[in-house]
Design a protein that fits this description.
Strand content: 15-25%
CATH class: Alpha Beta
Pathway: Pyrimidine metabolism; UMP biosynthesis via de novo pathway; UMP from orotate: step 1/2
Binding site for orotate: 130
Subunit structure: Homodimer.
CATH architecture: 3-Layer(aba) Sandwich
Radius of gyration: 17 Å
Distance between the termini: 29 Å
Low-confidence stretches: none
Bound molecules: 1-O-pyrophosphono-5-O-phosphono-alpha-D-ribofuranose, orotic acid
Order of helices and strands: HEEEEHEHEEEHEHEHH
Largest sheet: 6 strands, mixed
Structural class: alpha/beta
Helix content: 40-55%
Family: Belongs to the purine/pyrimidine phosphoribosyltransferase family. PyrE subfamily.
Number of helices: 7
Domain Phosphoribosyltransferase: 56-156
Length: 213
């Protein structure tokens, strides 16, 4: 669920401005899930743009306060949400941890890096949701440490029904700054997407899991 329409459009506008949205139907991207896709939203790029990362930091920090009051800890899903998670934690003056996809195979073999105590209230920051598997994998690791996961805020979601049901099944509340529908709305207003690509995106969105498989 997007926070509100203005934020969704503004976030989409900023992502388009910094060329975080890549369209390569001829040379499809492979996603974390293994799905092939003509589109890739690279939120990591925003860290290189102070005005954009300040916007995301401010909106996310405000939402954490509005939705969850004062959590004990902010957690970022590695690696995409480490940077943005730290920015949010910094804005709120809160501790920060990050969650790896799996425990390290050497060193201290941690999956969660940073200091966490059981019983703490944690808000998770994620950069992007496709199927939601990576994010929910991080939630699982946090819950195994006996913390209370209050909810998650992400920059962007494709809004796939599989993600919605995955979050529902795990009983995790998700809010996002923007989503695919607002991105496409914003992109068409600014003629960002050429006509042939618009057709490809329409076809892809009807069955993204099977596209080019
Ligand atoms: O919803 P999902 O289907 O799980 O896909 C989304 C995940 O994919 C990306 O991470 P990636 O695995 O590319 O790693 P990175 O964060 O280290 O770049 C992104 O940062 C999300 O965590
Ligand atoms: O599903 C993914 O791996 C994925 C998709 C996308 O658009 N951007 C991203 O960073 N990851």
């Amino acid at each position: 669920m997007v926070l509100d329409k203005d934020t969704a459009k503004k976030t989409a506008e900023l992502l388009l401005q910094i060329n975080a949205i890549k369209l390569e139907p001829e040379n499809p991207f492979t996603w974390a899930s293994g799905w092939k896709s003509p589109i890739y939203c690279d939120n990591r790029i925003m860290l290189s743009y102070p005005e954009v990362r300040n916007f995301v930091q401010e909106v996310m920090a405000k939402q954490v306060e509005k939705l969850y009051g004062k959590p004990d800890v902010i957690a970022g899903v590695a690696t995409g949400a480490i940077g943005i998670g730290i920015l949010v934690a910094e804005a709120l003056g809160l501790p920060f941890v990050y969650v790896r996809p799996e425990p390290k195979s050497h060193g201290r073999q941690n999956q969660i890096e940073g200091y966490l105590e059981s019983g703490q209230n944690v808000v998770v920051i994620e950069d992007l949701i496709s199927t939601g598997k990576s994010s929910l994998n991080a939630v699982k690791a946090l819950k195994e440490q006996q913390v209370n996961v209050m909810g998650m805020i992400a920059i962007f979601t494709y809004g796939f029904s599989v993600a919605t049901s995955n979050f529902q099944e795990e009983n995790v509340s998700l809010h996002t700054l923007s989503d695919y529908n607002h991105l496409i709305e914003q992109a068409s207003e600014t003629n960002y997407i050429q006509e042939s690509h618009q057709q490809t995106l329409l076809e892809w969105k009807t069955n993204p899991q099977q596209w080019k498989q």
